[in-house]
Amino acid sequence: MTPPPGVVPEVIVITGMSGAGRSQAAAVLEDLGYFVVDNLPPTLITDVVDRVGLVEGRYPRMGLVVDTRGGVTAEDLDAAVKGLLSRGAKTTVLFLDADDSVLARRFEETRRSHPIQAESLAESIAAERRSFVEIRGMSDIIVDTTDLNVHELRRTLESAFAIERTDPAMHIALISFGFKHGVPRVVDLLFDARFLPNPHWVAELRPQTGLDPDVDEYVFSTEDAKVFFDRIVDLLVFLVPRYEAEGKKYLTIGIGCTGGKHRSVAIAARLADVLSGEGVEVSVLHRDLGEGGVTP
Predict the structure, then answer these.
(1) Whole-angstrom distance between the N-terminal and C-terminal Cα of the chain?
(2) How does strand 294-295 pair with strand 281-286?
(3) What sign has the CA pseudo-torsion 276, 195, 205, 174?
(4) pLDDT of residue 8
(5) For residue 4, what is the enclosing H or E element?
(6) Contact 254, 184 (CB under 8 A)
(7) Burial label, 262 (beta-carbon count in 10 A; 0-12, 13-18, 19+)
(8) How remote is the C-alpha of 39 from its chain's centroid?
(9) What pLDDT is attached to residue 292?
(10) What DSSP assignment string belongs to 52-106?
């Protein structure tokens, strides 16, 4: 079945690790006006889209959850996506992920059983991760929920999929972090600021953060910092329209320093200001500042 002239169907396929937030993502899309079907075998995706499209002769925006419960495989999902694209559907594969330790804690807190039965919860998670390697690689958007609460996840998905958005502009998520705490699992571009002078070794600046004017001034007091920042901006000016032309909706940029408190925070904050001033939709997560580290 093909859509009526001028109608562009939109289908978001939600998948990913159990415990990473698929149910919350489905609820967000439902609140945004999407018709959501949970636990759908991937072999039925095109059939369901066709049948729903017959209702009143229209194609609604749809969110389809496919996961381990329905026996999802990379081969079946690839075939389904190709089938949707052949129908003219605007198709996005959204993959939800999180660190293994966080997934384990979430299962223990909710006392739910993991869909893959193994000798231990850790082995179940590891087995599911192995099964998702190819699917994760073919996904259009990967959202790491390790450091996100339900409200932050909602803001992230609303930015990417809100129905009222008619422009093709992507959403840019900036993450400042400290390498000593680990690199974010999901980043499209990563910049390392550890070569810049560290405010940590300045006694009066150590208790402050990159959001404080004194630290910002210190970080950007060297020519290297100014050139580094300008080249990041130049690179994004070049890349963003090309990503948009390829249909990319979400770009995650990581900026790291040693502890994630000073240099990376100052650079991410300034970059957000510059991009916002150019009309780019930006959100900022200062991951290693703890509570209050999220800026819409």
Answers:
(1) 40
(2) antiparallel
(3) positive
(4) 63
(5) none
(6) yes
(7) buried
(8) 21
(9) 44
(10) HHTGGG----EEEE--GGGT--HHHHHHHHHHHHHTT-EEEEEEEE--HHHHHHH
Cα 244 to the chain's mean position, in Å? Answer: 16
3-state SS assignment for residue 254: strand
Domains of the chain with CATH codes: 10-161 (3.40.50.300), 171-295 (no CATH)
Q: What are phi and psi of 163, to 5 degrees?
A: -60, -35
- Residue 3 DSSP label: P
pLDDT along the chain (296 residues), means of 10: 58 91 91 88 85 59 86 84 83 90 90 87 91 86 86 83 61 90 86 96 95 97 96 93 80 94 97 89 85 46
Cα 24 from Cα 47, distance rounded (Å): 25
Asked whether the beta carbons of 142 and 184 are under 8 A apart, the reply is: no
Closest by CA position to 87, among listed 118, 45, 120, 32: 45
Q: Report the run of H or E that residue 110 belongs to, with start and end.
A: helix 100-110
DSSP 8-state class, residue 38: -
Distances (CA, A) of 240 to 71, 164, 185, 235: 36, 21, 21, 8
Q: What is the pLDDT of residue 294?
A: 46
Measured N-to-C along each axis, helices 100-110 and 121-131 cross at an angle, to the nearest 10 degrees, of 130
3-state helix, strand, coil in the chain (%, to 5): 45, 20, 35
How many other β-carbons are positioned within 10 Å of the β-carbon of residue 34?
A: 21
